[in-house]
Structures are given as structure tokens and as C-alpha cells.
Amino acid sequence: MNNPTDSFEKVFSSKNKMLIVFSHPDDAELYSGGTIARLIAEGKEVRVVKMTMGEKGSRQEKVSEEELKKIRLKEDKEAMKTLGLKDENNIYLDLGDGQITNDMKIIETLVKQVREFNPNLVITHNPENIIIRFAKDTNWFNHRDHLYTGRNIIDATYPYARDLLFFPEHLSDPKYRSHTVTEFLFVDSYGHEDEVFIDVTDYLDTRIKAHACHSSQYSMQAARDSADFFTKLEGTDRRYERFRYVVTD
């Protein structure tokens, strides 16, 4: 591949607020850690919402869910600090690891985030594909939590956060207002015709350090390996995070 075009200015130049919605602690770093760090360094306001605490994400038999939840919360707070995220924009919904479904209760929870934060763009999981195709011989399953997280935040932005008669009780509180989002970046959409590349070369070390904060899940070497796997492209020494860029009516 020839050196791809950095789409940072194309996607973000006219935007001030980005809402990032992922299923688990460490998803943000894995899929978009360099982009988050670059956005914050550029003075953009970023809010990162974690749907669950990832409390089932361990194969260690002697670790309870409550113990792991505490560990992962501590790790994630340190990771978000490493990326430069403000505390007030670090959101934990704690909806139950492995229990994300596409239902109105979860949609309403996300509607509140959209109506309060008023983002210009949302970054989230691939909401369509059960099988993620990275390359010809490299595929993986789209985690159920990821699939439904993507669907829920799409539903929350359209039509529920926009239309005043959905959850009208929200609007009695002045911190909530009708809001429309029409631009999205979907991760895990490799090779899509709408794919864009965000140059994160100058933020790669920050991405790796933040990812390695999740030490119950990743070693420093594993974080480096992950960065290499997801950001290296043949034919260039620059590093890129990849997204499907969608603009809706």
C-alpha cells in the first residue's frame, strides 16, 4: 500500500466534541488510542463511555467479578489519564459484561449521554458484521457486546436523542437538550469502501502506554504487539488507525 492520506483534518477540523462509546475497558486504546490522544492534544473535547466494566474478562479462576471490576476500574482510570482525558468525560455505565442487548433501557442511557454532551461525531464499534474480516486469512468474531453497543448508540443518536417526544422527561433538566449526530467512525471495518486513515505516528507511544495500563489483560509487550498489528501498513513507516467514516442525512 502506498502512503495513505491522513484524514484527521477532513474528519475532525470542523468538530469540537467527540463521543466515543465502547463496550469494555481497553477497547478505546485498542481501536483508537492514538486518535484519542491526538484529538485531545489538538484541543478537542473527548468523552469516552464504557458500557461495561469488563468484569468477566479473566481466565484466572481465583479472581471474583467484584475483585476484577475494582482492578479494571483502577487500570482504566490510569489509562484515560495517560491519554489526557478529563475526569468528567470518563464515563462508566456498568451495564454488565457480556450482557449488552439492543433494548430501550440501554438506548435511553445513551440518549442521556448524547443530549448532555452534544457531540459532533461518534466513534464506536462495527454495528453490522458478526465476522470481522481484517485480511484475507485473518478474521475474528465481533463480540456480542461490541455489536450491540454499536447498534445502541446509533439508535440513541437517531431518532431518540433528536426527537423531543422520546424520553421527554429528560428535557425538564436544562443539562439535556435535543441533539442530532450525523457523522460516525466505526472501528473493525477494515478495507471498507468508506475507510479512512488517521495518522497516529506521533501518539503511538501514548497509545501503547495507555493500553499497557490494563495490566490484568495486557503486558507492555502485548500492547506494543497490538499497536504493531493494528497500525502498521505495508509500504510506509507512518502509523495509522483505521475507521469506516459515515456521514448520514
Automatic annotation (TrEMBL):
<dbReference type="GO" id="GO:0016811">
    <property type="term" value="F:hydrolase activity, acting on carbon-nitrogen (but not peptide) bonds, in linear amides"/>
</dbReference>
<dbReference type="Pfam" id="PF02585">
    <property type="entry name" value="PIG-L"/>
</dbReference>
<protein>
    <recommendedName>
        <fullName>GlcNAc-PI de-N-acetylase</fullName>
    </recommendedName>
</protein>
<dbReference type="InterPro" id="IPR003737">
    <property type="entry name" value="GlcNAc_PI_deacetylase-related"/>
</dbReference>
<dbReference type="InterPro" id="IPR024078">
    <property type="entry name" value="LmbE-like_dom_sf"/>
</dbReference>
